[in-house]
## 1
Amino acid sequence: MRRLAWGRCREHPRTAGEVIPDDQGAPASHPCQTTEVAALNLPGLPFSLSPEGDPPPGCRILNGVLTLTGAAGTDLFIDPAGPAGPLPDAGRFVGLAPAADFTLHAQVSVEFASMYDAGVLLLWAGPAHWAKLCLEYSPQLVPTAVSVVTRTTSDDCNSFEVSEASLWLRITRSGGAWAFHASTDAKWWRLLRYFTLGQDGPVKVGFLAQSPTGAGCTARFAHIAFGTGAPANLRDGS
């Protein structure tokens, strides 16, 4: 699979998806510029996203949809049985969200090919304190809602299978706690995890695509939306 460089993914301020000329005045051949990204601005987010991790994914924004292509062997996981080698890494786009309660959701679609391929919504407080909410290809090669909460080691949980390669995922900040929800229709949200990251300090949120066992994975994040406040009841489907 061809690996793309970090892309400065821009849309026309009036017409979504229109190609913007490059710095030399010639039209870009692709809606994703292949210069290094300093910050990524998405229509649904009130804060910018910056690239972190390695190797970097391919990146594109078209009509408000963020597409990331993770390279072969990319993952975030700290095995509770003890790492067998160097810890894996994955390029990602993350940004510092406001400290107040909020929700962040997106419709995640994945081009599955290999076990553990996934599109991910991510919380990142540091290399030993992070959490990810995934639409992931299970060992049975079935799209599955998966969550991983890492406080020095990773606590991995497979929640439910879905019949399609698409699922709505939502992160909620509620006071000092976090919640992960998933939905098949963006109307009724199933609570998957309610937790803390076990440390104080700023937490970044963002997106990644992973392919721990495969040659690479492409994930699309559509209908990205940020909302202030948290649901009054995290367990009633709202």
## 2
Amino acid sequence: MACAGELGMTSAITNANITNSFWINYAVDRTISRETQTQWIVPLALQLVPGLLLFFGIMMCPESPRWLARKDRWEDAQKVLVNIRKLGSDHEYIQSELADIRLQVEERSTIRMSKKDMFYKLFQKGTRNRIAIGLLLMACQNLTGVNIISKSSLGSPPMHKY
């Protein structure tokens, strides 16, 4: 639930983690022999650390204010927003965000869509364009060859004679 001011920090953390993964691959390639299984076990084990941090960290996260609002627990939703934003409950930003949430919850409750209607909504003009752009960007990213470069950062596997 990052607000506009926090999105830059979220992106920076993601990019730093990607950079760290390349440095870990480089360090493993330079320090661990390719003849042992340790070379692929160490990077794989290191990938578990953020997952474990996320697993245990999610236990400390409060419920989503939008979820609380959908359950008609408005006071709890306001408490969560106050805690997350570190602002007073009467602050303009908190009141504005609660009003936006209230509007969305009310709009959603009046527009009950069946699964079939939701599926058809995927193919409406605005949604269809967004999905097409996302798929095109994913395909173009793969066509740049960046995956080949990142996968080959560990070097080629050892050659065995059979």
## 3
Amino acid sequence: MSITRRVFILSCVLLGASHAAVAQKYGVTVNTVKPAALAPAKTYVWGVNRQSFDKKIDALIVAAVDRELSERGFSKVASGSSDVVVTYASLSRTDVDLKQKPKDGASAEIAVGTLLVDLSDPNRQTLFRVRMDTPIELNTATNEATVNGIIKQMFEKYPPRSKR
């Protein structure tokens, strides 16, 4: 492969990567919602999660999801059969702000948290999947308020119960 062709391919890859980094969308995204299947659901159980590495953050996420589901009329069961199985996955990443002028030769880095909450039927068919990508501040003093706010925003997308 010629050097010119290699440079062209590398340029295309870098251009695509920079476009993806600049175009990053933060906020709540609902990937799946099945209101008719969720309407009769009244009980839930926690399934196996890809939980946060930080056990305190894990506990905050579980408590916030429990609270939001309770506000929507769900009752938690410790184990056994339920109408819905709840799981979550979390990760953190670093985005690079390519629009901002680099300081000391380095581009600005943004700590980003991603949280995905799934509500599935007992056969693991997803009924509601919501994702939040948001810049995060790594501050133990504000973790609880941050997690509660994120989960609240996510569950604002939960379909309202139909009135019978």
